[in-house]
Design a protein that fits this description.
The protein is α+β, with helices and mostly antiparallel strands and about 280 residues long. It is globular, with a radius of gyration of 19 Å.
């Protein structure tokens, strides 16, 4: 059987505001094209059939960088490879570079963008879990007579598998990442069968007493990542070894819809992240 041809047109835009207006004019039949590493396969499999592709790769404000002493804003158009290679500053003292290095394969990292990964919202994607664990903020550009931007906490931005708070006319503009202090410690552990595959479970731990940050997260669930506040509080109070003793119990409450095997796999990922806390920075 021959595949049915699917026709669409591609429109380049000069700014994210223009992209949002083009999406509004498409009446739900438009998709954003940046790196194309998620959208391309969906087009090939006919899972997405837009009439318009809005190419934002060269949009003037897609790769902006802004920083102060507390927050570093990363434009959504920066690629995984650029983050991995240290082309831009890493405000997390190595966590972003470490995570970027483990995403898929280099060919994917060369084109895939941090914003595109978030917009696609695969629950197993590395940035979904990492940015939620950091307490980052997702900046979204919408359409309207005036420039409209909204901000969402990364842990609430993903509402379910492949579902986010983005409206049909929205484009992710930037990600605001908190600066970690010199004494911060972090660990990231991913369970997958082989390098390059999506994770079956992710554990992320971040501890920065100077800025009052202690966060523990279980990712690669079948929906949004799950923060573990009790484990995080125990980490801040008594250390990683003591925190690890309550991971399994808190996960059962945080992810009650998962079967026992899946809960145990996520407990392993988080516990191993706790055991590695602070060690990745010194490799």
């Amino acid at each position: 059987m021959r595949n049915e041809a699917v026709r669409f047109r591609i429109q380049k835009c000069r700014s994210l505001g223009e992209a949002s207006e083009l999406l509004a004019a498409a009446n739900g039949d438009g998709k954003v094209l940046a790196g194309g590493q998620s959208l391309g396969p969906m087009l090939n499999l006919r899972l997405a059939r837009p009439k318009l592709l809005v190419n934002i790769k060269r949009a003037s404000d897609f790769r902006r960088l802004e920083a102060d002493d507390r927050v570093f804003a990363i434009g959504a158009g920066w690629t995984h490879a650029e983050i991995e290679d240290g082309v831009l500053e890493d405000p997390t003292r190595g966590l972003l570079r470490f995570v970027a290095h483990g995403i898929a394969y280099r060919a994917i990292r060369n084109r895939g963008t941090i914003g595109g990964s978030l917009a696609h919202a695969d629950p197993a994607a590395d940035w979904v879990s990492t940015l939620a664990a950091l307490g980052a903020t997702i900046v979204v550009q919408g359409s309207g007579t005036e420039v409209t931007q909204r901000r969402y906490a990364a842990e609430t931005f993903v509402e379910g598998a492949f579902t986010t708070k983005l409206a049909e006319t929205d484009v992710i503009a930037a990600i605001e990442v908190p600066r970690l202090s010199a004494g911060a410690e972090w660990a990231y552990y991913k369970v997958c069968r082989k390098t390059g595959e999506f994770a079956n479970a992710i554990g992320v731990v971040i501890l920065d007493p100077k800025i009052g940050l202690s966060r523990v997260l279980a990712g690669a669930t079948d929906g949004p990542p799950a923060l573990l506040p009790r484990t995080a509080a125990r980490l801040a109070e008594s250390g990683a070894a003591t925190a690890a003793t309550i991971v399994a119990d808190e996960l059962r409450g945080a992810l009650p819809h998962l079967d026992v095997d899946a809960q145990e796999l996520h407990a392993v990922a988080v516990s191993r992240a706790l055991a590695r806390l602070g060690k990745e920075q010194h490799r």
